[in-house]
Every structure is written in structure tokens, then in C-alpha cells.
Amino acid sequence: MIYLDNAATTRPDPKALSQAETYYSENYFNPSARYGGGFAVRRAVEEAREELLALIAGEGYELEFTSGGTEADNHAVLAAKRGNAVTTKGEHAAVYESFVHLRERGTEPRFAAINRDGSVDPASLLSLVDEKTSLVSVVHVNNETGAVNDIASLAREVKKKNPRCLFHSDGVQAFGKIPFRLSPAIDLYSVSAHKIGGLKGTGALYKRKGIALPPLIFGGGQEEGQRSGTENVLGILDFLYAASAKFQTLEKDYAALSALRGRIQAILSESGLFTAISPAEGSPYLLTVASESVRGEVIQRMLFDRGVAVGTGSACSSKKPYSRILEACGYSRAALGGVIRLSFCPQTGEEALDAAKLLAETAEEYRRKVSL
Amino acid sequence: MEKVVIIRYSEIHLKGKNRGYFERIFSVNLEKSLKGLRHELHRTSGRWLVEKFEEGYAEEIAGRISRVFGVHSYSVGYLTDSSLDGIYSAAKLVAPRGGSFKVDTHRGNKGYPLTSMEISAAIGGRLLSEFPGLRVDVHQPESVVYVDVRENGSALVFGSFEQGAGGMPVGVSGKGLLLISGGIDSPVAGYMMAKRGMTVELLHFHSYPYTNEGAKEKVKELAKILSRYSLVTRLTTVSVTEIQEEIHRKCAEELNVTLLRRFMFRIAERVAKEEGMQCLITGESLGQVASQTIEGMTSSNAVVTLPVLRPLVGFDKDEIIERAKKIGTFSTSILPYEDCCTVFLPDHPAIKPKLAYVESEESKLDVERLVSEAVAARESEEL
Q1: Do A224 and A266 lie in a common domain?
Q2: How many domains would you assign to chain A?
Q3: Which of A198, A227, A247 is the endpoint of a domain?
Q4: Burial, A242: exposed, middle or buried (Cβ in 10 Å; 0-12, 13-18, 19+)?
Q5: Which residue would you say has higher pLDDT here, A370 or A210?
Q6: What are the angstrom distances between the C-alpha of B371 and each of B174, B215, B268, B302, B376?
Q7: CA angle at residue B210 from B207 to B214, to 5 degrees?
Q8: Which of B208, B337, B344 comes nearest A318 by C-beta?
Q9: How confident is the model at residue B12 (pLDDT cuts 50, 70, 90)?
Q10: Are residues A204 and A332 in the same domain?
């Protein structure tokens, strides 16, 4: 199996898993337990917190562990308690649907236009921010196109217009992949473990110190009362080991995947069936292409049966067949029928080129059979 | 005194010499529906009694009984000794606490010292003095306490008749193969044939990879719901991918659906005959979609000899939806899915295809090979 759906989830890093193994085989104590074993586990969790913080943030930040990127996004966005809140049309559902829900809570959601590559139009975003804006959220790397938003500069501009509002970014597709450090104008930043070799069910919210969010989950007061529930110790430690490994080779992987992505794109362009939706300067971890002559999900199933796993840009259902994000980018429905998202990890090698050739062949076969 | 469920059957009494056969099958179906719950099922004159179950399960048992075809009505009540005290202690439990009521007694045991009227009067009188909020109204009572004094020294006491599923016991009317798509109509069609006593098995067509595995999962979910009524046991799936590709490649686009349906009917008939089934069942309703015109049905029927039963043919969509909701398949049926047709769906399907035209287009295909390959590659699973 050639696995090119790493933006959906990644294979758990076996080395990280074996490092973390002790936290389910022996050190399974509750970190809140008041005996030696509990204290030791508590220490491990707190060290993991410090080390994960240090990967992208300075001393001005703290970190809250969550059940994943979705919870981190929800926790950040639902802090918008008054006036309006501004986001983009290019957000992952975890942010987008939270904004839709804000309306019920009495906060007006506003959605900024995005460019054809999926990045936010800064002018549109800033025009929506006013003195009543309580929160702004902009995705760091668009999960469908790979477009990178310059969130540091956007955050600065937003704060110039309204210094009191919170700035959040969904960093799920950026963390551990894109060279980046949190700058002071960014208040909140969501990340997820399983997109970088960690386990599903683990994520974190980076928070500028001093920001107290109303809790979504109540209970024993863990995570400074901001997120109750016994800590997912194994997940957290595994996250630390997986993330540390990623950050060690981040720049090298970035360069290697940039080159690989270029070659894959060349193969697909040559076939004449696909055009790239992803911007050239986007994340090298992701390449989304579209074709008017195929149906993405059919190609996806054919490819899986031939040993290649890829993503599509569209939810596979007859009720909602087109991607909300790509429609907002301005693509026609005809083009959106055939969207394929290839997404990579540092272990992806030359086999991805074979997969790209197979994708082109499969699409050609489909065209021959169906489009005539 | 113990809690019991009383079951009365419909139509079986009409069956004359076949009655014994019908009752045996009915009894087997009742047992199947109660599988997994501790109970005893006894036949008495003209009805069945479910006894010896744990009291907390009365509702579960009644629910399952309510879905067995052949059940005309059922009641949850009490089985007690037939002394007046015994009857009264049960009557107290089923009687209302206020409003108008009457006691309605039926006396199977003609040797009982009191007449039916006297029993009703005695029980009614005691209830009146026990519950001051009650008053008697023998003409239009809000509630009735039914007492049934049986010949064996016991009595049944219950408060209401609940309507059963009606129809005839599944298994007395032969076997049919239901073409099930995953939409709203076909499960209702299967339900209706099962209601008339037919054993129904399922045949589902898919065109993977043009359709996804979700459609099959959905059909399985529907089958599970249907199996609560009709003891559906088997699902057969057949791929029509190659057939659709061939039709698409060689034949007039407007006939895609018409031709595909002819293939489906041929395949279904082949499967039905091999597995000893006597008819095909579809959820077609006249005029509902382009392929469900009389011309479309004629074109499909022309390729098979088995009868094709279309129990919904005269129903409006609203009526079908209402039934699907009642049966419990609606919410599953409306989950998004792609059935066989959508990828190759023509922009303008032929609404009234002439048979000669259909046949001439079809002659471009190797029908026999395509059908036998599809039938040979079918997959079956017990549900």
C-alpha cells in the first residue's frame, strides 16, 4: 500500500509508540494520584507540556491538552462571547461549524472571502473586523488546498484594528510540517497529534498566558480547570515523541517533499487530465488536483483497490457532493467532481511517483469508460 | 397471578383445512420473534399466551409481538385463578384510577357459579368502592376492564386491545426475491409482501467502484429492520458494473436505465430460480420516475417469466413515506447514498421506450454472457 492520505491521518510513528509504551504497560497511574507512581506520571505529563510548548512557542505561552484538533478549535472559537467573530470561508469544519454555532449563542459569525488557491483574502478579512469583534480565526494551512496563510502578519493587522479581540489559528496541517513559531499577536493555536505520527484522540491548544477560556468540559479540574478529565497520558507522551522527531528534521523534510511534490505535479500535468488546485508556494505536504473528466471518489476507490490510498476534495455523499471550501475558491461544479488530494509525510519517497503515474492511468481508464 | 401477553390472530380461522398448517407456522414465527427472552408460549382456544417471562420484559415482548404478521391484536394482562378474589386482585392492577369504565366479562367456563353479568357487577362494585374517582358507564366507557374466565379454572384480566401487524404468518405464501436499492420504496414493498405471508429474500445491485460500500451497509441496515417483521435471512449482492459500462459504451444514452433494469430483472430471475423463489418483488410505483412508466415496466417484464409483484404500484410517494416511517425504515432509507444509476444517469432518460427500440439497442450487447457472469459472481450472506 502506497499511503498518500496523510492529511487525513498518518501512520503512528513506531519509534514514538515504543518510547511511550511504558505509559500503558507500567506507568498507567492516574497523574492526579497522590502517591509515587501518580507523581511520576504527572511529572512526565508536565515535562511533555513544556517540551511541546518549546517546539513553537516562547515563554509567553501555555498549553492545554485536548482530545484532538476539533476540541481545541471548538474551545478557542466558542470563547467568542459577544459582538461578532470573524473567520474565513476556507476553514476546516471544526472551526467553520463552531462559527455557525456561534450565532445560536448570540455572537454574529462573519466569513471572509478566500482566493482561488484557498488562502484568505486579507482585505476581505480585515474589512470584517471592527470594534465589536471578539475573536478572529484563520486557518494556518488550508487542509484542502495546502495554501499557507501568513497568520503572523494577519494577526498583527487584526490587532491594529481591534487590539482587544483574540486571534486564533487552526494549525493542524501546519504543526510539525511548516517552519513556524508563534508570534505574540497570535493568542490561540490548535494542533493535532495524529497528523504527524501521533495517536488519534490527542491534540492541544496553545494559549497566550493569561487567557482563560470558558471550559467546554467540566469535572475534576484538570488542565487548570480549563479542560477536565483524566489526562490521556499515553497519547500525550506519544505526541511528544512523534512531534519531537518531526521537528528535528522539519527543514530537511520540507525541502525534500517540495522537490517530490514538484515531480508528482509534473507527472499529473503531463497526463493532460489534471490541473493543480494547490498553489506552488503552498505546503509541500499536500497536492490537490482537479479534473473535469473524472469523479474523484470513484478514482479514489479504484486506486485503493490497486494499492494506493488518496483523498478527495469532496465529502462522499449525494447530499453534499461538492467541497464547501473549493466552491468558495471559485471552482465550477464540473471541475469539483474530480478532485484528488495527495498528501505526504516525511517517509514518502519515490514510490509516490509510481502512484502518481497510476493515478493518471486510472483517470485515463475512467475517462475512456465513462466520459467517452 | 402473573403478567402475560395475550395474542389473537387474524384470518387464520378462514383457512379451513389448512388451519393447522397456518397455526404451526404462526407459532414458529412467534417463537422466533421472542428468541433470547425467557418465556413460554402456549396455545389456548383461539389465541396464544406468552407466560413465565420476567415482568420487566412485558413491554419488550409486546413490542416484538406487535410486529409479527398474523397477529390481529394483543393485550398485556394478568393470568390468575378464577375465584372472584383472584380476578379482583388482577382487575385492581389494570383498572383506571378515575373516569368512566365498565367491566366486560366473557365466560368460557359455563359451569362457573356466576353469570358473566354477575361477575362484571361484582368486580365493578368492588372497584367502585376502592377507587372513588371511578364511575360506571356501560355504553361509552373511557376504559374497560376485560375479564375472561377460562375453562381450566383460570382467568385472564386485561385493560385494552392493541392492534397487531395483521396479515398472515410469514412463510405461508411462498417465497419472493425483493430487489432492494437502499431507497425508501423497496423496503416498504418487501414489508407488504411479508405481511401477506411471503418469505422475502433480498437482492441488491451495486456498481462498485462507481458506487461505494456505504450503499451495501445501508441495505444491511434496512434488512435488519425488515427482519424484525419478516424474518428476512439472506442478502445477495450482484455487481452490475461491467453491464453498465457496456451499455454506456454501446447503446443509446437515453436507454441506459431501461436497459439496466432489464439486466437486473434477468439476473434476479436467474437468482430466484436457482434459490427456489417464486416471484420478484420491486418497489416500483407507477410514474414515480422515468423508468417506472407502464412502458418501462413492460420492457422489464418482457425479459422474465416469473411474476413481478409491485405492491406499491398504485401508491403516491407520500403514502409510501408514511408507511416507511411506520415500519421504521424511513430514517435509514433517506441517508445519502448513490444507487447504481447515478454515475451513468442520462440527462434525458427515455420515458416511454418502445420495446422494439429497446430490443434493437440491446442486441448490441452479449446479454447471455453478461448475465451469467454477473450471476456467477454474486455474493450471499446470511443476516
Answers
A1: no
A2: 2
A3: A247
A4: buried
A5: A210
A6: 26, 22, 10, 16, 9
A7: 80
A8: B337
A9: low
A10: no
Taking 3-state DSSP, the helix, strand and coil percentages for chain A, each rounded to the nearest 5, stand at 40, 15, 40
Provide the pLDDT for residue B214.
Answer: 81
A75 touches chain B (CB under 8 A): no
CB within 8 Å: B343 and A295: yes
Using CA coordinates, name the residue in chain B closest to A315.
Answer: B336
Please check whether residues A266 and A366 belong to one and the same domain: yes
What pLDDT score does B37 carry?
A: 94
pLDDT-based confidence at residue B108 (cuts at 50, 70, 90): confident
Residues A54 and A135 in one domain: yes
Q: Minimal CA–CA distance to B291: which of B335, B261, B331, B321?
A: B261
Q: Which of A321, A361, A312 is nearest to A341 (CA)?
A: A312
Rounded to 5°, angle at Cα A307 from A305 and A313: 75
pLDDT in tens, B118-162: 999 999 999 999 999 999 999 999 999 999 998 888 999 999 999
Cβ contact B209–A319 (<8 Å): no
Contact A146, A282 (CB under 8 A): yes
Q: A174-230, pLDDT tens digit by residue?
A: 999 999 999 999 999 999 999 999 999 999 999 999 999 999 999 999 999 999 999
C-beta separation of B353 from B299 below 8 A: yes
- Domain check: are A214 and A265 in the same one? no
- The CATH architecture to which B2-163 belongs is 2-Layer Sandwich (3.30)
Of A370, A337, A342, A345, whose CA–CA distance to A358 is shortest?
A: A342
Which CATH number does the domain housing residue A221 bear? 3.40.640.10
The three grid cell numbers given for residue B377, joined into one nine-digit string: 459472481
Query: Structural domain boundaries of chain B?
Result: 2-163, 175-382
Supply the ipTM of this predicted assembly.
0.79
Domain span including residue A302: 2-10+249-371
Q: Do A194 and A267 lie in a common domain?
A: no
Q: Which fold has domain B175-382?
A: Rossmann fold (3.40.50)
> Looking at the complex, does the CB of residue A309 fall below 8 Å from at least one CB of chain B?
no
